[in-house]
Specification:
By secondary structure, the chain is mainly alpha-helical. It has one domain. It has 3 helices and no strands. Helix 1 packs across helix 2.
């Protein structure tokens, strides 16, 4: 397996209960605390982090005039539904 490029070390302070959970998981998995933290961060970035970025992009699009009026969108959907039912 090829080695991944790593950043310089970073320092962070954690609540003691969070650190205890990290250490417990690391011990059970026979991995390092860094491994557990990286996995947790990747999970966060893939879920909530990605959503935050998507919402920020949507807000920029609306601010730049790239949006649709909700009432117009509902009318359009109603027309499509009525057309499909006919």
């Amino acid at each position: 397996m090829s080695e991944r490029e790593l950043s310089d070390p970073i320092t962070m302070r954690l609540p003691l209960d969070v650190l205890a959970e990290i250490e417990e998981i690391a011990a059970v998995c026979e991995r390092s605390r860094s491994w557990v933290v990286v996995r947790a961060l990747k999970s966060y970035l893939a879920a909530e982090g990605r959503e935050i970025v998507a919402l920020a992009k949507a807000r920029r699009d609306i601010d730049d005039g790239r949006g649709s009026d909700l009432d117009e969108a509902i009318e359009e959907l109603d027309a499509i539904i009525k057309g499909a039912a006919a």
